[in-house]
Amino acid sequence: MKILVIDGQGGRLGRRLLENIRKTCPEAEISAVGTNSIATQNMMNSSCADHLATGENAVIVACRTAQIIVGPFGIATADAMMGEISPAMANAVASSPAYRVLIPMNLCNTYIAGVASGSAAILEDAMRQIQKFMSGEKEK
Hints:
Helix content is 42%, strand content 19%. With 140 residues, it is an alpha/beta fold. The protein has a five-stranded parallel β-sheet with strand order 3-2-1-4-5, with helices on both faces. The longest helix is centred in the last third of the chain and has 15 residues, at 120-134.
C-alpha cells in the first residue's frame, strides 16, 4: 500500500503522522512531501518515510500513484497554509483517485465546525481510517 503524507509550514503534523503510520502500518510504502524544505527536513528527521521530496511538482507527481493521501485539511484547499498550497497542488490532492485522510485544523482563516483544538483523538481516528482502508473496510 502506497501512503503519501503531505505537510507544510514546519512539518510537525507530518512528522507525527509519519511516526504513527509507521507504527500502525509497518508494511506500508510511505512517501512524504513537504511544501517547503523546512517541512521536508522535519519529516526526514522522523526516519519513517521511504521517500522524501519537496515542492509543488513533487506533490502533483506523488498524488498520481498514492493509494492513501494523509495530511492537514488545507492540502486540498487552494492558497491554504498561508499560501503554501498552490491551486495545482490542491487540485492534485482533490482529484487523485487515492483515499484521502484529512486532518481538520482550525487555522488560516478556516474554521471546521465540531473540531476540538489539538485533540489527540483526531490522530487516533486518522490511524483507524488508514487501517480500515488497508484491510479493505474503507468508509465512504
